[in-house]
Structures are given as C-alpha cells and as structure tokens.
Amino acid sequence: MTINEAPILQKVAITTAQMRSDLSDVESRLMHLGFIEGAKIVVKRKSPLLNGPLLVEVRGRVVALTQTEANLVRVELCP
Questions:
Q1: Who contacts 14 (Cβ-Cβ below 8 Å, separation ≥6)?
Q2: Which helix (H) or strand (E) holds 43?
Q3: What is the pLDDT of residues 36-76, one digit of tens each?
Q4: Is residue 42 helix, strand or coil?
C-alpha cells in the first residue's frame, strides 16, 4: 500500500523508497525529509477535501505531503 492508503494513527514502515541516481525534485525532497526505506511513519491526519494534503509524522516531525508525494512511497503495517 502507499502512504495514501495507510490507516490514520497506525505506525507503518517504509518498504520501498525511490533510490535512483537521477532523483526528481519530489523524490529528493522526500529523502531529505527522512522518507527512506525502513523508516517508521504515522499518518496523523488526512484532509477531507478531494486530493487534499496529509499530515505525516516521520523521525519526530510532522510533514505535510500532497497526494502525489504520498503515492510515491510504499509502506506496510508494523507488527
């Protein structure tokens, strides 16, 4: 599943992060914010608006992601 599909307030781990040598600006931004393989994240809030932003906690800070950004990162539920 992607971050968009992750349940709210449930800890998930990033399973796939883009690690290419020719990263796009969005992929580079995500990596610099800590969205790397193995990192634990929590979706704090999803906008009720269609295609609205998500608030995601990663490495102790809360980050706003667009739907497009959230669709780039695959996650799985933590046990």
A1: 35, 36, 37, 38, 39, 40, 41, 73, 74, 75
A2: strand 40-46
A3: 999 999 999 999 887 889 999 999 999 999 998 998 899 99
A4: strand
Q: Enter the tokens of residue 48.
A: 């009720």
Q: In the structure encoding, which two tokens stand for residue 78, read together?
A: 């933590």
Within 10 Å of residue 13's Cβ, how many Cβ atoms? 14
Query: Which pTM value belongs to this model?
Result: 0.83
Question: What span, in angstroms and rounded, lies between the C-alpha atoms of 70 and 3?
Answer: 5
Q: Is 54 helix (H, G, I), strand (E, B) or coil?
A: strand
For the chain, the distance separating the N- and C-terminal CA atoms, rounded to the nearest angstrom, is 15
Domains and CATH numbers, the chain: 3-77 (2.30.30.90)
Q: What distance in Å separates the CA atoms of residue 36 and residue 42, rounded to the nearest whole number?
A: 14
